[in-house]
Amino acid sequence: MTSHHPPSSRRPALVIRQEERAGAATDLERSVELLRAVADGTVVQPRVVRVYTPEPTVAMSRRESRLPGFETARRASADRGFAPVVRPTGGRAVAYDETCIVFDVVVREDAGAIDQALFFREVGGALAAAMRGLGVDARVGDVPGEYCPGEFSVNARGAVKLIGTSQRAVRGARLLSGMLPLEGVDRFTDVLLVVNAALELDWDPSTFGTLATEVPHMPREMVESALIAALAGG
């Protein structure tokens, strides 16, 4: 794991570019560890940004873990080579693998000082601006029928979802996590079709977008750097 501090930022941040592959469950555990470390002051920076390359994962929410079809959804995920996990943030099922970038941004928060919707809007706007800087017609807003629907998703052309985000707060800090696909999405739509069917949740697989469709052959490192700059406030 490597880290550095952006040399010029009005909001100093600790940036972690996780290089090792840790596994689906461990990756999500690290998100919670960062959240608690910022909350209790172990990490002194008021904002932490982490990006990493994930293992094939279907991340479902705690709410979904209580639905009658959850065990069926877990088995379907595993059968298709995706580790089924329950993520610490909200939302609905999302699928990703090593062709995606997953990110966390954790901010210190004094007793309810950060409004959840405002934080979604702030980060969504920054991410959309970063995507536009890469040449994407990116906007903030949900696409009807998208996976893990949310009004602060980042979409392309108003037609496909590119980035979804979800949150969790503890006393003293707030975590926002998200994912951006870079290549093909057929594998993701395949597994989400069976997962959402098991959970009895509707969605339209044609709304699952990827950067490769919008801006082909964009180097991964360039995309990571753009996301980090946006999330770190630089």
Supply the key terms.
single chain, 234 residues, alpha+beta, BirA Bifunctional Protein, domain 2, eight-stranded mixed beta sheet, disordered N terminus
Produce a short descriptive summary:
With 234 residues, this protein is α+β, with helices and mostly antiparallel strands. The chain has seven helices and eleven strands.
Please outline the helices and strands.
Blueprint lengths: L1 E3 L9 E5 L5 H17 L6 E6 L4 E4 L1 H4 L4 H10 L3 E4 L7 E3 L3 E9 L7 H18 L4 E3 L13 E3 L3 E11 L2 E9 L4 H13 L12 H4 L5 H13 L2
Parallel strand pairs: 2-3, 4-5
Antiparallel strand pairs: 1-2, 3-7, 4-6, 7-11, 8-9, 9-10, 10-11
Helix pairs in contact: 3-5, 4-7
Unreliable spans: 1-9
The biggest sheet amounts to: 8 strands, mixed
The portion of residues assigned to helices is 25-40%
Top CATH class: Alpha Beta
List the domain count as a whole number: 1
Tell me the series of helices and strands, N- to C-terminal: EEHEEHHEEEHEEEEHHH
Number of helices: 7
Question: What is the second-level CATH architecture?
Answer: 2-Layer Sandwich
Explained architecture:
The chain is α+β, with helices and mostly antiparallel strands and 234 residues long. It has a single domain (11-232), classed as 2-Layer Sandwich (BirA Bifunctional Protein, domain 2), CATH 3.30.930. Helix content is 34%, strand content 26%. It contains 7 helices and 11 strands. It has helices spanning 24-40, 62-65, 70-79, 116-133, 186-198, 211-214, 220-232; strands at residues 2-4, 14-18, 47-52, 57-60, 83-86, 94-96, 100-108, 138-140, 154-156, 160-170, 173-181. The chain has an 8-stranded mixed β-sheet. Strands 5-4-6 form a 3-stranded mixed β-sheet. Strand 10 (160-170) and strand 11 form a beta hairpin. Helix 3 packs antiparallel against helix 5 (186-198) and helix 4 (116-133) packs antiparallel against helix 7 (220-232). The longest helix has 18 residues, at 116-133. The protein starts with a strand and ends with a helix. Mean pLDDT is 93; it is low at 1-9.
